[in-house]
Amino acid sequence: MDIGGMLSAVTDLAQNHKIISAALLAALCLLAFKKPKEFFRTVAFFAVLAVIFYIFSLIGDSMTTGVEEKKKGTTKIEKYLE
After folding, report:
1. Is residue 82 classed as helix, strand or coil in its secondary structure?
2. How far apart are CA 71 and CA 42, in angstroms?
3. How is the chain split into domains, by residue range?
4. DSSP track, 16-78
5. CB within 8 A of 21, min separation 6: which ones?
6. Cα 64 off chain centre by
7. pLDDT of 63 strictly over 80
8. Is the Cβ–Cβ distance between 54 and 3 less than 8 Å?
9. What is the model's pTM?
10. Does residue 1 contact residue 57 with C-beta atoms inside 8 Å?
11. What pLDDT, on the 0 to 100 scale, is given for residue 65?
């Protein structure tokens, strides 16, 4: 999954559930004004989690691609040997 797909999913969620999105945005703004230090810690924490998730998804996709290529190579060899 690429970043564009993830952003598309987030925007679709925000557009389909406007009341929940507005409430979440209002809560985040309130937290940013009342306790900015905790707000930025929370934002940094979720940013780190998002980066870790993205890296793991890239690793998983590359492993899947490698397995598929290996299967293609073995089937070509099997057909050649027959």
Report:
1. coil
2. 43
3. 1-34, 36-82
4. H-HHHHHHHHHHHHHHHHH-HHHHHHHHHHHHHHHHHHHHHHHHHHHHHHHHHHHHHHHHHHH
5. 13, 14
6. 17
7. no
8. yes
9. 0.56
10. yes
11. 64
Q: Residue 64 has what pLDDT?
A: 66
Query: What tokens were used for 39?
Result: 């707000």
Residue that has been written with the tokens 């490698």 in this structure: 66
Is residue 74 predicted with pLDDT exceeding 70? no
Question: Do residues 32 and 39 make contact, with C-beta atoms less than 8 angstroms apart?
Answer: yes
Report yes or no: 21 and 13 within 8 Å, Cβ to Cβ.
yes
Residue 44 is predicted with a pLDDT of: 95
- What's the CA gap between 65 and 21, in Å, rounded? 36
Are 29 and 22 in contact by the 8 Å Cβ rule? The answer is no
Q: How would residue 36 be classed by pLDDT, with cut points 50, 70 and 90?
A: very high
User: How confident is the model over 32-51, as a mean pLDDT?
Assistant: 92
